[in-house]
Amino acid sequence: MSLPNTGDWERDVAALIERVGDDLADGRYPMAMLNNPDLYPTELRRIFGHAWNYLGHVSEFTEPGDYARRYIGEDPFILTRDESGELHAFLDSCMHRGAQFCTAESGNTSHFRCPYHGWTYKNDGTLQGMPHMAEAYQDLDEEEIALTEAHIDSYRGLIFGRIADEGPTLREYLGEFTWYLDVLFGATSEGMTVVGEPHRWEADHDWKTSADNFSGDSYHVLTTHQAGLETETLARGPWEKLDDFPGASYLACTDRHSVGYYLSQEEGTFMGYPDSIRDTLNPALSDEQRELFSRSVFHFGTVFPNMSIIHGIQSGGWGGPWACIRKWNPRGPGTTETTSWWLVPTELADDEGFLEDSHRGWESLSPGGAFESDDLTIWEGISDSSGAVTHELRETRGNMQQGLGAMSDEVETVEDPLHGPAAVTSKGLYFDERNSQTLLRSWYEMMRQGAPES
Ligand code: FES
Ligand SMILES: [Fe+2]
Source organism's superkingdom (predicted)? Predict the structure, then answer.
């Protein structure tokens, strides 16, 4: 098959999707799947149109009328809490002629008034009225007109939305990954709280590249972030030296989502949070979940398709600990707008000293920080070269074979309830790419079927 030669867009895309499935069988992938203008519209429809997409955290929407603009794929939604306390996600498109009715990124309002002709909606999406209603709309069925809504549901304060009517419930979609979300977002009784407004920036990389990186790419840290690793103070932490890292690193993937974490040998690390965290632990956690949190140093992962997590100790004088949710909003082939939220345990949300340290940690992973610029340069280069005609004509294959068969030394499969219900959990830093394979397999399943299985 040669992608560019058939002149048949649909057949080319279908063939490329099948190549992803074939190549994955031996840990490869078609390089041409990144920054691909033919594939991209199908991703928007089949993946973002059908997946449960992360939209925001309940702590951002505490009062009736609180709202913020959020995206599913490229579709602009307004996530809001109505006057009765219910959450909604409305497509920002007026039911008269489709104008965007929300002109701010976030705020609080009981009504949205369209700037084109003035139709006005309550924050539950129903029509309030319009100018000259008595003269112009004498037979109008007002009940029938309401803003278009996405289906929404939440887990541990994380609000997700889905466009398609049919599909698995959020619980089914998250599956066994809820076990890890419990530890990440429900370790303390009051859960996590978003602090401040999220950061946003746009860069020329494919959304899949960053989702893959956060799913468990510890391997890149050795090279991409070498300068940071070589600073003497970074080695300080629960380990004496960097060589201790491999014995503390784990990757775990369910059938759709992935997580990675570093653990100390002893309990009591608690991601580096102050000792007071011990008094706030959520009694609903299982003993295994509590032990995992207690020994945790650092977590990261990706909820398919485009929500990533990074949480834990920051050392090297860069502050911390902190928790961050990333959302990789697709903005065209090979272009992503990142939204980055900073979260802290609710019990620590008023602790000024802690917040100052935590904020410095979070900032180190923003475009102005030491680590983000390392990654962005690489990711943009990937996008640039992945769009090459050469990759299409030669059908070149990228490599994610670590962890397959007998490929990787110093990687052992772990079976211990402490590590949760993941399909595969492995120990040994750097040399396992099964989380990346999981991300692409999730991509393949949805692109092939047009929707997720439960
Ligand atoms: S498009 Fe909104 S009132 Fe006309
Ligand atoms: Fe990185």
Answer: Archaea
